[in-house]
Automatic annotation (TrEMBL), chain A:
Keywords for the protein's UniProt record, in alphabetical order: Exosome
The protein, known as: Exosome complex component N-terminal domain-containing protein
Compartment(s) of residence: Nucleus, Nucleolus
A cellular-component GO term for this protein: cytoplasm
Occurrences of domain Exosome complex component N-terminal (ranges): 57-94
Automatic annotation (TrEMBL), chain B:
Molecular function terms from GO: RNA binding
Coiled-coil stretches noted in the UniProt entry, renumbered to this chain: none
Superkingdom of origin organism: Eukaryota
One cellular component term from this protein's GO annotations in UniProt: nucleolus
This protein's name: Exoribonuclease phosphorolytic domain-containing protein
Sequence ranges assigned to domain Exoribonuclease phosphorolytic in this UniProt record: 44-161
Record's keyword terms, sorted: Cytoplasm, Exosome, Nucleus, RNA-binding, rRNA processing
Taxonomic lineage: Eukaryota, Metazoa, Ecdysozoa, Arthropoda, Hexapoda
Keyword RNA-binding annotated: yes
InterPro entries for this protein: ExoRNase_PH_dom1, RNase_PH
Pfam families assigned: RNase_PH
TrEMBL record, chain C:
Record carries keyword Cell membrane: no
InterPro entries in the record: ExoRNase_PH_dom1, RNase_PH
Protein name as it appears in the record: Putative exosome complex component RRP41
Keyword Cytoplasm attributed: yes
GO function terms (MF aspect): RNA binding
One GO cellular component term: nuclear exosome (RNase complex)
Similarity comment: family membership: Belongs to the RNase PH family.
GO BP: nuclear mRNA surveillance; poly(A)-dependent snoRNA 3'-end processing; rRNA catabolic process; U4 snRNA 3'-end processing
UniProtKB/TrEMBL annotation, chain D:
Example GO BP: exonucleolytic trimming to generate mature 3'-end of 5.8S rRNA from tricistronic rRNA transcript (SSU-rRNA, 5.8S rRNA, LSU-rRNA)
PANTHER family per record: EXOSOME COMPLEX COMPONENT RRP42, EXOSOME COMPLEX EXONUCLEASE RIBOSOMAL RNA PROCESSING PROTEIN
Subcellular location: Nucleus, Nucleolus
Gene Ontology MF: a single term: mRNA 3'-UTR AU-rich region binding
InterPro entries listed in its UniProt record: ExoRNase_PH_dom1, ExoRNase_PH_dom2, Exosome_comp_Rrp42_subfam
Domain Exoribonuclease phosphorolytic: 32-166, 198-260
Assigned GO CC terms: cytoplasmic exosome (RNase complex); nuclear exosome (RNase complex); nucleolus
Location, primary (coarse class): nucleus
Protein name: Exosome complex component RRP42
Superkingdom of origin organism: Eukaryota
Amino acid sequence: MNSSISTENKSVAGEGIKEDEGYEWVIDEEEGVPKRKKIEDRTKVRVLNVQANDGTFVMPGQKLAVANEYFEAGEGAYEFANVIYAAIVGKVCIEKFPEQELTVVSVKRKGKAPFISPTIGSIVTCTVVNRTYGLARCLITHVEDVELDDTMRGIIRREYITDKNRDAAEIQSSFGVGDIILARVVGIGEGDFIMSTSEDALGVASATSPAGYQMIPIDWTTMECPVSKARVSRKVAKIVQPQILKSEPS
Amino acid sequence: METTSSNGTASKLKGFSRADLLNPKLPLINTETGKRQDGRDINEVRPVFVQTGIKEESRGSSYVEYGRTKVICVVQGPRDLSKKIDFSPTGLISVDIQTVGGKVPERFTTLMKDALEAIVILDKFPKAILEVHLTILEDSGSALAACITAAGLALADGGIPVFDIMIGSTLLFDGKQYYFDPTRKELDALDLTEQEINDVGGGIITLGCMPSRDQTCLLTFEGSKHQ
Amino acid sequence: MFCTQGAGSHSLPVSWPETYGKMSRQTTVDNLWTQNIRPDGRSPTEMRQIKCSMGVFDKDKGGGGSAYFQIGNTKAVATVYGPHEGRASQKKVGAANQDKMTVNFEYSSACFSTNDRKTSTKADRKSMEMSCRLKSIMDNVFVHHLSEGSQVDIYIELIQDDGGAYAACINAVTLACIDAGVPLQDFVVACSATMAHGIPMIDISAAEKSTGMPELTLGILSKSKEIVVMEQNNLLKLIYFSDVLNLALDGCQRMLQVLEETCYHKFSLLQRVIEANLRRERT
Amino acid sequence: MAEINLSDEEKYFIIVGVAQDIRADGRARLDYRSKEIEANVITNAHGSIRIKLAETDVIIATKVELGSPDEDKPELGKLEFLVDCSPLASPEFEGRGGDQLSETICGILTSSYSTSGAIDMKSLCIVPEKFCYVINVDILVLQCGGNLLDVIAMGCKACLGICEIPVVTGLRFDLGEPTPVFTTDEYEFTYLDVREAPVVVTLPRVGRYFVIDATIEEESCSKGKLAIGVTSKGDITSIDKIGRCCYQLRSLAASIKLAAKVGQGLNKVLLEKIESIKSQKKQLINPDFPEGYIRRKTYKELVAGVDVKIVRVADVATVFAEEFPTATYSKPYLTEKLNQANFFSSDWTSGED
């Protein structure tokens, strides 16, 4: 909220004060009182003055770079009073995005991946625990490709299953208990995360048939048990099924 | 005072209780060598040993030794909030400290909880709770300081986003000098309830600081300090 | 203590020093027989000084109500958090009788309330039992259909217990409910009475109770004169029961007088404020 | 402390206000609000105080008991604090809710009173190793406005100041064990010397500035606070950081000086109040109330005054007997005394005429 007072009423504020350029009146965000601030020369801003260049080992709390509209703190780093600091132990990695004129400074860590909590929009793999008419309750085990230490609770409502005929879809005919499904987190609800499987690439990834065998999808709404040929209707995720990859060469 | 009572209460009332006889209070500075009782200089710190990643399946763990004070810290990954605790936009932290036989003053836990909440970037894991378990194996002075360092290292080892690594230290002063990293014997020797200590202004400070941002995240002081 | 002199403090005749608790030992039994005077100098049908006031804490945040009731040295403070949407945990319990208003009661007495200090905090048996008793009394007084499904939190704290604590709590709760605007069918007024040496006495103090006198606590609905609660401990001869009961009823009438005057006083204050505003607008 | 949640705009309004030294209720940053202190609220306690500061309302009562000192501190009396958050303050204190808050307050109070300078503990000991006064300070929080810790600390100091400690007139030796004998005269008591007792000043940090005596709104938009115990001479007895903020080292030193200055002012006002309460009590009782503080007899003086003889005490409690240090209590003497007061007559016990 660093709005700077335009120059014409500067004379109002600084009658008696000697007008030395290089300073401008800016309303200080914390104080709410107009304060004289040095004008940062915009030219050098584009260049990234970095204390720690790429790939160096960094401890939390170490200064990485000066933050402004061209530089941002990525994952594993945080920004405080226009300075980017490291938040975890690891190696610095700087990615440049020329089209948005943005470079992201982040700290990566090999070995155990840092904890990522499911945020809105992240794709999540979970297993269905129980189903009622209105919703399916499931436990989130992986966020994108990072495995969670402890499962988080999520629910998929009936309306969020498919986009096409939204109210025709039913929980019974799309998910079974024990299926592993891919879903996208739509909201952080009160107790559980609210998820949806409306896109084609989301839905049941693998399901076990009543006979206990891994079921193979026949088309995008039914799956079949290879042994007992029992057919069960599921909302299948349009992803390359692992079994098909296996059975390809034969 | 010649009470004729027979059962040996007379010896007690001469001012020496059983505790005094067992570990006599030695003066802080050894007069001959001019150093402390255990041979350290005034501003010398006991040898410190630090080890991280000692527990496999936990998210982060550390073991810290300040001289003979030994503390183990284990951090369990951000877990899902159970139904009882109501919704919180940012993460939560639960701290529990145990000692091997003996009682932990409950002020330690509240202080540690405040310090950790100031250190960890909580809004990186909303609706989750981070469990920090601290076990004090042996407390021979500045146990709280050892706990602070252990917790800071365990968080860093577990890759929990923190503002800065937390380091703890204790300082004891009896009006005349400042003693770094006091041992349990020295803490007992400085008996705060004696009158002359208080006129001069003795006390114990425990400080948890964030080195690169030179801020303090934990501060307790007991005793009396003159301006 | 809580109420300024003007606001609703209605004192009945007081004839003994403030710290009467330290009962002087010289007034022995014969004094009671001959001059009809109780150990602390009151006549048998004379109540202790009553001070009560409403709106003690400025509970403007959340539409609550509070009241302070003091009789002699027994002091009780009650606050009511007005009918609000029930919390999730209590709601499931109340789902069965959806038409009723769920009442969440908590009684706690301060550690220093009785002469010997008790260290256990609130959740001991006695306070649980007292909460249930007070809850059952107030349940049949609330007008349930006006605010179904909503929840009322009533908290009562006994600051000093000097005999007649149960009666003081009931009066304090009634005043607090009225202050909070909880719909009530009728005033619930309570008073305690006893019988000693053949003389029925009203409103006994802790010193008298400690000498083994029976204590009858009577709570009635003021208009319809129905008895809401009647509890009595220690031994009381049956033939004297009717005398004590009549005395208690009479005590309740006098107590009702005091409570009603407090309410008028409080709402007349509101009345005066409203009139002042009206006059200012007119001029 | 009980929190109320404000919208961001309200918080910003308060923070900017504090930065310009104007607070929501018009006070400057270092102004303290006026408080009402009412004494003798609980008649059956040795000393009781009710403090009301705008929205914070606390009742504190001290009761003095006879107890035995700890093993490792044989010559010192004992001082115990108990904080009880009543649900009157806010619904969240119902049942187990208030324990977390009362523990922190208890911890801070004991740590700031633990230095020997605060209260003269040695005078609280009657017989070393055996008997000492145990002063129980019970704190009941009726309403939880802002600045709760300051109000409680002030209340404790005031309450300890006016606490009437019964005087030990003599020692009775039965079977060689010295047992103290207390005075029966209600108006013979002594006061504790509270001039050195600390007062806690909490400095919540709102934005970049410290604020004294914060209201509940200011506390909810401050991340943490410093609780500093200050004595009347300006010494610091204890510092505690509560809450989740971290302080620059430079700002710590400045805040401690600030707290010392404010603490001295607070102490002065409080001591005047204590003296005024005591003088009121003086008019109530006989005018020749002993000036200043009676120095309690130390153990040696008590023992010297009594010529020691093994004395057998009757097993029936002496209800009406006068106190003779060397009296011999025989059974017939007591029964005759009780008959005099028709203790055994029927009408006392069964309650019929």
